[in-house]
């Protein structure tokens, strides 16, 4: 069984509400989000359609729109919501402690 660990991704102040940033760790890349309600989430960084990084996308409430072909995903669940995306994003547990955002990978 693979071991998981909590990795510090950013400070809470690094992400505005309804925004997304890129976080790279080792050979992996992630997207870290803050929804309109102030909740934090993390997914794989690349769109499942054509591997364009989602950090350049548009966050609308709890939805991320890929900047390349405007496919949409539900941020909390990673579910594909609008064509051309049809494969869900992998999501990761997130916790916030002392003003820092951590991802469990």
From TrEMBL:
Pfam families: Rieske. The keyword Transmembrane helix does not apply. The keyword Ligase does not apply. Keywords: 2Fe-2S, Iron, Iron-sulfur, Metal-binding. GO terms for molecular function: 2 iron, 2 sulfur cluster binding; metal ion binding; monooxygenase activity; oxidoreductase activity, acting on paired donors, with incorporation or reduction of molecular oxygen. Belongs to the bacterial ring-hydroxylating dioxygenase ferredoxin component family. PANTHER family: FERREDOXIN-RELATED (PTHR21496), RIESKE DOMAIN-CONTAINING PROTEIN (PTHR21496:SF0). This is MocE family 2Fe-2S type ferredoxin. It comes from Cohnella ginsengisoli.
């Amino acid at each position: 069984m693979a071991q998981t660990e909590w990795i510090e991704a950013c400070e809470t102040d690094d992400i505005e509400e309804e925004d997304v940033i890129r976080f790279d760790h080792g050979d992996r890349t992630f997207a870290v989000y803050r929804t309109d309600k102030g909740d934090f989430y993390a997914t794989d960084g690349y769109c499942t359609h054509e591997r364009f990084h989602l950090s350049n996308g548009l966050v609308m409430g709890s939805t991320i729109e890929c900047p390349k072909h405007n496919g949409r995903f539900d941020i909390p669940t990673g579910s594909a919501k609008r064509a051309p995306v049809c494969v869900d994003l992998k999501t990761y547990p997130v916790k916030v402690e002392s003003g820092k955002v951590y991802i469990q990978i």
